[in-house]
Amino acid sequence: MTMFSSTQIPHLMRTMVAGILGMPENHLRVITPEVGGGFGSKLNVYAEEALMCFIAKRIGKPVKWIESRRENFQCTIHGRGHVDYYELAAKRDGTMLGLKLKLIQDIGAYHQLLTPAIPTLSVLMMPGLYKFKSISADIIGAFTNCVPTDAYRGAGRPEATHGIERMVDILAAELKMDPVEIRLKNFVGNDEFPYATTTGLMYDSGNYAAPLHKALAAVDYTARRAEQVQAREAGKLMGIGISTYGEICAMGPSAALPAGGWESATVKIEPSGQVTVMTGASPHGQGEETTFAQITADELGVGINDVMVVHGDTSVVQYGIGTFGSRGTAVGGAALFYALQELKAKIRKFGVMLLGSENVSLVGGSCVDQSTGKSVSFAEMVVAAHHAKTLPPNTQPGLVATYFWEPPNFTFPFGAHIVVTEVDRDTGGIAIRRYIAVDDCGKVINPLLVSGQVHGGVAQGLGQALWEEAVYDDNAQLVTGELTDYALPRAHFMPFIESSHTETPSPVNPLGVKGVGEAGTIGCSPAVVNSVVDALSTLGVRHIDMPLTPEKIWKLIQAGGHA
Amino acid sequence: MIPQTFDYSAPQTLQEALALLENGERKILAGGMSLIPLMKLRLAQPAEVVDLGRVPGLNTITESDGIVHIGAMATHHAVETSPIIRAHCPLLAETAGQIGDVQVRNMGTMGGSIAHADPAADYPAALVALEARIHLVSAHSDRTVGAADFFQDAFVTSIEPGEIVLDIEVPVEESNEGSRYEKFPHPASGFAVVGVAARVRKSGDRITMARIAVTGMGTHAFRDHAAEQLLENGASIAEAAAVVGASEQPNADLFASADYRRHLARIHAARALAAAVSRAS
Amino acid sequence: MRRSNGVLFMKNIDLRLRVNGQAKEWSIAPGDLLLDVLRREGYFGVKRGCEKGECGACTVLVNGKAINSCLMFAAQAEGSDVLTIEGLAQGDVLHPLQEAFLDLGAVQCGFCTGGMILSAKALLDRNPDPTVEEVREVMAGNYCRCTGYEKPVEAVLAAAVVARAFVPAASTVVSTFGASPHNSQAGHHSANPRSAPKSKKTDDKKRSSVLLGGQR
Q1: Which domain holds residue B13?
Q2: Hey, is the C-beta of A457 within 8 angstroms of any chain C C-beta?
Q3: Record: contact B267-A426, CB cut-off 8 A
Q4: Which chains border C (3 or more CB–CB pairs < 8 Å)?
Q5: Which of A218, A280, A418, A490 could form a disulfide with A264 if both were Cys (CB 3.0 to 4.6 A apart)?
Q6: Residues B36 and B103 in one domain
Q7: Which residues of B touch A479 (CB under 8 A)?
Q8: Which CATH number fits the domain that encloses residue C44?
């Protein structure tokens, strides 16, 4: 049985569908071709996926199933769905002490793969980048007759970040402090890492003020505040919103995930010297094919075009977990790195043999005898390993290495987003004037791919902040079940995103990377809402729930902030 | 999302098309931007579709004796970019440029759009404000209807069975006229939550004629005579805009309540009028 | 017509058109959408996204104009010249838009990319020097959930610069090629373009060869 599925988790898909159908797992082959973005909705095993296999087996013929867009809206999963009640304790000088949350999660009608794990992540992420002495949370899972909720880009962390970043701004407003000042005062200090949070996490590394200062400089914060004073005098509603977010990435240690949190990589050097990498991760647009080829090329000293990255076929690739939770490079890439180290050690053995010297180092693909300067090329060592006329002691022919890497911890990226908005007093419409994103995802391997992840994440965050909402009518019918009703950002709406980075390496993995797939979405929504609340603060507005639809904003303005 | 099966014909002449349409089970296909989604949802299940795409001459845009004739099969893109329309009725070009997206403007036609008569469509406001006339023909008849009478209700027009929209006749905007279409688009569909077309004629600083037409607010586009008269009697734009839609029961939906829609109509009327007045100078 | 004993029967239609420069003759049903027919015939670069004309993933050029092939009956395309993303490159030589999308990292999952590039091509064909706003307005017909549009917009502007610099003297080149459609769903190997950071290519020789050889 061969199943083609647009999924983020081909191996888990095979295990689960084989289990559901009671067939031997090794009789099912799952192939995930080049597929489109999942953002969590493909981090699941849907009834239809098992059903199609069942039908194909029953009728003995190939079966193809294409969902309509409406079915996609109604029969996969939704994200977020929180009602959060926060209480925050702080000293008059702005030092935050405690945070309390009652979180009501709309579970939907059924549990999907990770449904209850999502609000759990929210609670873990509650403190954000700040030092709290005490944290308390209750999660209430409410079954409803709505579409089930599960992982959607950020999965629990955007919700938590939204909560804490709104609370920090509310506190700042209450104490008449600048939102920058109150953040700087409460950040975990650079000398405090690794930092144990009251929610049980161990933050790996950080320099939380760095991206904030960079973003403030980029937007010219002092000048913007001065501009805001003038704008207000002219009757305009201009807002400046900041979010300094943290997140939990590189999912994750196996203890934290129901079916293992490791990742696998196999590297094969072919006799020609070309390299095949098989990753258990299942990229679907993130560009890990490129990143992994870069890592491989750098480690082995081969050309990037000599590396082929293969994924998404359970009959070809060793078991893996998949791509989600900003884990592709931070876990899958680390597995690859370790597999490459094993291969390099083996290649060096052939270098030692061919050079007849122990004083040999592997540099840029060649082995160099440090005493004589003589060297053997990558190609020569690869051929020697495959032709195997003679072998180094205790060494097998061939050049293949597989590594299953268990991460010792999550990674904890962070960053600062600043949004300048202007609210149309007449219509309640919101215009984004500036968008600054400074993200620290650890070591950046491919700047182009990293900024692409930030841009897309910000677009999703903006959509969530401004429009996106699953609305049901009184009969529980989903009324935003088509793209004619459910608004996503389009090109002419999106602002130019001024994206840059700081780099604080993670000690968790040898690459020093942290993960960036979800950063934009996590940093964005509180920055936008903080900005609009700031714009309306002169009317006494303290908080607005997402999405910030024009009518909602207009009503607030009409009611002088008290709608 | 698969249409009910149907027969398809593509007549080569207008006479052939009109003869086919004598049979009421047949439905006209122009650009298909409204009909095809309806057929996919099976809200329309015609036995036969008559594609006007190959009838020559139905998409021409000409001007004679102060009237611009726009063939029903002229696409929104053609209306948006036509030098004749841009010169003689810029309001219409401006409106066409705000319909949907590029792909829709390339396929969608003016005739198809107005015959469908979506309450949130953009053209009706402009056509009503321009006092355009809709030219309808059948195998046995030939008549024109004023735009304000043509749009009768949501998805209802004065087209009789067997009739097609042949062309749209738009009076040339005079040199002392200014016009403007202001729209609040739905962020997802791009349709007008509210759209207001304003057209004014000035003599010195005095507004001698005002036309204000609103789409998206009610079941169909309407002219707001009360607001027009206020302006013509010397009231300010703010005063006139403040009464727009007073006698209408606005639509309410997920995106905009009735109150908000009425408010948007007034805001956009004020903006459209201000721009129209400045253009008339 | 076409009725027997009052029972309607559906008659297949012979459709003749050109796809990517090649003459085609296909038998279609009246209800077949251009999207369905193109995919059935192997042009898998035409994507089925929303089927309601909202997302633009099914964009193709019909007689040079970008349209949603999900909202066009194939029968309406009789006699037309259709360009799909498969027809943009000449063999291994990519169109400047495709080059720019790859160089600038404007492709992520790639589902919307074909439609985006075709929308952009139609724009550049009629306006070789568009503003950012014009590019964004044209791209507004193509939903993308991955890129936030920033790099695609940048890529279109970059391609426009390249294209303007190398307008061939004779612009009457008629495309007669038509890459045979390939099944983008078949391979499980990495087919993603390598978008490793390379300096923005401004290799004049390469660019001019791309342009002179490419479809205009």
Answers
A1: 7-54
A2: yes
A3: yes
A4: A, B
A5: A280
A6: no
A7: 254
A8: 3.10.20.30
Average pLDDT of the residues of chain A: 96
The total domain count for chain B is 3
Q: Taking CB atoms and an 8 Å limit, are A491 and C151 in contact across chains?
A: no
The average pLDDT across B65-91 equals 97
Instruction: Look at residue B2 and tell me if it is in a domain.
Output: no
How far apart CA A182 and CA B31 sit, in angstroms, is 58
Structural domain tally of chain C?
A: 2
User: Is residue A543's pLDDT more than 80?
Assistant: yes
Q: Which domain holds residue C133?
A: 89-167+204-216
- Report the CATH number that the domain containing residue B204 is assigned in CATH: 3.30.390.50
Q: Rounded distance, CA A128 to CA A164, Å? A: 7
Residues C201 and C103: beta-carbon distance below 8 Å: yes
Q: Is the pLDDT of residue C208 over 70?
A: no
Quote the minimal CA–CA distance from B1 to chain A in Å.
7
Q: Which residue of C has its CA nearest to B54?
A: C76
Model confidence pLDDT, tens digit, residues A149-187: 999 999 999 999 999 999 999 999 999 999 999 999 999
State the angle between helix axes of C96-103 and C204-213 in degrees (0 to 180), rounded to the nearest 10.
Answer: 140
CA distance A115 to chain B (A): 28
Which residues in chain A have Cβ-Cβ distances shorter than 8 Å to B184?
427, 429, 550
Average pLDDT, integer, range A125-129: 97
Between CA A160 and CA A91 the distance in angstroms is: 22
CATH code of the domain made up of A254-405: 3.30.365.10
Same domain, B100 and B157: yes
B188·A471 Cβ contact <8 A: no
Judge whether C122 is closer than 8 Å to chain B, CB to CB. Answer: yes
Contact across the interface for A494 and C186, Cβ inside 8 Å: no
All residues of chain C having their beta carbon less than 8 Å from the beta carbon of residue B100 are 53, 141
The answer to whether residues C111 and C46 belong to one domain is: no
C183 domain-assigned: no
Task: Tell me the nearest-neighbour CA distance from A136 into chain C, angstroms.
Answer: 36
For residue C120, pLDDT beyond 50: yes
One domain, residues C123 and C216:
yes
Q: Is residue C190 part of a domain?
A: no
- B36–C contact, CB cutoff 8 A: yes
DSSP chain B: --PPP-EEE--SSHHHHHHHTTSTTEEEESS-TTHHHHHHTTS---SEEEEGGGSTTTT-EEEETTEEEEETT-BHHHHHH-HHHHHH-HHHHHHHTTSS-HHHHHH-BHHHHHHHT-TT-SHHHHHHHTT-EEEEE-SS-EEEEEHHHHEEETTEESPPTT-EEEEEEEEPPPTTEEEEEEEEE-TTT--EEEEEEEEEEEETTEEEEEEEEEESSSSS-EE-HHHHHHHHTT--HHHHHTTTTTTS-----SS--HHHHHHHHHHHHHHHHHHHHHHH-
**Residue A283 is inside which H or E element, if any?**
none
What pLDDT band is residue C175 in, cutting at 50, 70 and 90?
A: very low
pLDDT above 80 (res C203): no
ipTM of the modeled complex: 0.94
Do B72 and B167 belong together in one domain?
Answer: yes
Nearest to A554 among B1, B187, B260 (CB): B260
Q: What is the CATH number of the domain that holds C93?
A: 1.10.150.120
Mutation site for A-interface testing, chosen from B104, B255, B257, B266 by largest number of A Cβ within 10 Å: B255
Mutation pick from A455, A499, A518, A524 vs chain C, by most beta carbons of C within 10 Å, is A455
Residues of B near A (Cβ–Cβ under 8 Å) read 1, 184, 186-189, 254-257, 260, 263-264, 267
**Closest residue, chain B, to A487 (C-alpha):** B188
Architecture field, domain A2-66: 2-Layer Sandwich (3.30)
C188 to A312: CB separation less than 8 angstroms, yes or no: yes
Considering the domain architecture, whether residues B155 and B235 belong to the same structural domain is answered as no
